[in-house]
Structures are given as structure tokens and as C-alpha cells.
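hi!! sorry for the late reply, been swamped w classes. u asked for the two structures so here they r. pasted raw, havent cleaned anything up. first the sequence of the first protein and right below it the C-alpha cells
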Amino acid sequence: MIEKIITPFQRFIKIESLSGILLFSATILALIWANSPLAYLYNMLWDYKMGITTEHFALDKPLILWVNDGLMTVFFFLIGLEIKRELLIGELNSLKKATFPFVAAIGGMVIPVGLFVLLNQNPETLDGWGVPMATDIAFSLAILNLLGKRVPISLKVFLTAFAIVDDLGAVLVIAIFYSTGIKWSLIAFAIGLLVILFFLSSRRYYSKYLFAIAGVVVWVLFLKAGIHPTVAGVLMAFTIPIQQRINENVFSKKVSGILENFKYAEGRKGPVLSDEQIGRLDDLEDWTSLVQSPLQHLEHRLHNWVAYLVMPIFALANAGIAFSADLNLDFSLVSSIVIGLFVGKGIGVSLFSILGVKLKLAAFPEGINYKNIIGVAMLAGVGFTMSIFISNLAFAEGSVYIDSAKVGILLGSLISGIAGYAFIYFFSKK
């Protein structure tokens, strides 16, 4: 039983760790490109407009918005799948399991936001309060993975669980506080469509083509309604059924029959399969799709694409800050974000975790101690992907604040990553 849980999770860690390395590489590439003689190509690429325009409908955006509003919807869809799985069958599926990461995540959101608001003296930058509240799971797991055997698997499970709760909090913040000019009639249509999909899912009906088409429609409705379309990705994920349409016993019997017929099928000539054998393979594919959980199948398929393509492209598109002589930075905003990420996350996650244990609301998972929690709390300040995403919503593109926010995120994440790594390295046994 333990092997069934640990092995998929170790595969998850491996993917996220490599994704963290790719994110870091894409960030460095973006910074080098944006400060090179070819910087004009960088700006031209992401400012290039593309889309569809007709007499009654227009969907025309710069490439960077297709990345942030479109490609990142796939990222949020995957987050939604992970949240649903964790709530139903994972580390958040019972009060006992969920309490510890939930308490840690609350502290990791409340304290950074509180510090940012307390330090902020400029009403124009107050909208950035959501920037320091998120943890980048790819970067933080990549750093943990570098520590090898110094880190117990239970600590990685804890980081993943509270980061998922953290992501859920970020999604709610985006939906509620970073959506403007909402057109409720379009939202009503989108919700109606989602309700239909939920009903079909509850009846164990799932068609990838139907759900994909519905997902695109819901995405457009959210976009045109004024709610950030990435929220549609999360809601669509919740409509994907987690139940298998047939159980393992039925599948085993069917497969046994198919393989038997495949083995003794007639009409084969040399290395070429017979028509009957090809038919049996088609049957096997159909039954395989029925025994797989649609949610698990989608999560498995999308994880590599998001980790190795979507997130690096997002980093490449958004991390290119040109550090020219005329670069203006709001150093108050920079410092507020750095303090929010490093100090706020470090204090929030560790303090709330320890208080939760002291008040007997939660208990340390097996193999985890106070020092482990403090180290991971520092790593929680690596907020790269979601923090940059929220900063794009909080501040106008091209303003002094957007560059200042990104500099603060890069510095805060760098400091948190180095400090967390060093703390765990020196205070954990090999």
C-alpha cells in the first residue's frame, strides 16, 4: 500500500524538480535576452498581436496575454485537478490529514499579506497585496530534491500539500479581488454550462471532446465577462470525474479474453498484424480508457506538458526585466515584496504550524520536526510563478510598479531559496 502511494509521488517530485530547473533556466534566459542587443526582438515577440476578429466578435491579444490568459489556463486546470484529487483521495481528504498543511498554508498567506499591507505606504501599490502569498511548488521541490537523503519523503509530501492549499487560496483571491467589470449574464451562461458538466460527471459520463469544447466556451465566457479566464481552468477541472467507469475485475476479465483472441487470431502474414488482431488492439484501447480515472489520466498527461513547456514559456515571457540606466524602480514596493516573501512566509508557515501542534489542532507528520518545518517555511518564500502571475493582474503593463514587483519577487524568491536550502542542509542529518 505504501509503495502505491510513494512511487507515484516520487515520480511527481522528479517532474516538479526538473520543472524547477527549467524555470530557473528560462528566467536566466529571459533576463539575458532582455538586457542584450537583441532586446528589441524580445519585446517584439511578446507584443505581437494575434487572434480572431469578426464583425460581432473579437479575440485579439498580444502574445504575452495569450501566454498569461490562455496557456496559463492549462496550468490552472492542472492545479484544479491536483486540488480535487487531494481533497477526495489525497493528503487533504480527511480532517486529520488536512489540518496540518491547511494551518501552515493559512499562516503562509495571512502573515505575508499582513506584512505587505503594514509596510506599504503608497495607495497605488496596495493592489499588490496578493503577490507575496503564493509558493512555487516546482522551484521549492527542486531545491528540496537537491538535499537528497537529508530530506524525508514526508517533508516533501507536507510541502506539496500546503502548497496546493496555498494555490487554492491564490485562485480564490484572483477570482474575487483581481476581477473587474463583471458581466453577470455571461457568468450565468458559464455557470449553467459548468452545472451541466457536473451533472454528467456525477453520472460517470465523460467525453474528452465534449468537455474540451465546453472548456473553451467557458474560458471565452469568463474572459469576456471580466473574471480572469484562468479561474475557468480550475472550475473545469472540478467537473472531471475521478471515478472509473469500470472496475479492475471487469477490466481484467475483458483484457484476458481480448489477449486470448489476439494470440490465436488468424490471417496474420509475417510481421504484419491481421485485421482481427488490430480489432482486438482497438478493443483493448477502449477498455483501457474505461478503467482509467479521467481525472488521473488527464493529470498524468498534462503534468509533463505543464512542467516542461507551459511554465518555462511563462517564465521566459514574464521574467525579462531590462536593467537599463533609465530603469525606475519603486524600492518601497520591492522591499515590501521581499519581506513579505522571505520574512512573511518564513514566520507564517512555521509559526502557524507550531501553534497548530501546540494547541493540539494538528500533529507533525511522521519523520518531521521543528527544524524541518522552519526550513520548509523559508522555502515557501519562493513564490515565482504564481507571484508573477498575480503581479501582472495587480499592476498595469509597462508601469514602474510591474517591474518593481518582478524584481521584488526574484530577490525574495532567491533569498528564500538560498536560506531554506542552507538551513535544512546544516540542521538536518544526512
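now the second protein. again sequence first, C-alpha cells right under
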Amino acid sequence: MITKRQLGIGFILLGLVAIIATFAVDWLGAGNFQGVGPAQRVALIGAGLAIVVGITLLPLGDRPA
């Protein structure tokens, strides 16, 4: 069974991967915008929210999710 701490770590890792992928798109040159475009902003906000949710789950410990 998955615990709340494990679920929190999963959310944090998912958010970090999404942030890295968002900036990798810029590095590869995809898109028409110079810098961070509107779709990337939405993705970064979503990734940030996933990280915040993950951080709030960490202190709940080994209780089942």
C-alpha cells in the first residue's frame, strides 16, 4: 500500500520533471515565443501546484493514502 509520504514524493518528482521538460522545450527551440510562452506559464503553474501538494503530504508520514 502506498503511504502519504510516498505519494508526496511522487508529486514532487512529477512537478520537477514537468518543470525540466518545460524548459527543455525552450532549449530545443520549439515554439514561437522568445522566452516563456503562455502555455509554458500554465505548465509551470501546474507543476508548482503539484510540488506544493507533495510538500503538504510529506509530514503526514506513513499513513495509507
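hope this helps!! also noticed smth abt the second:
The chain has one domain: 4-60.
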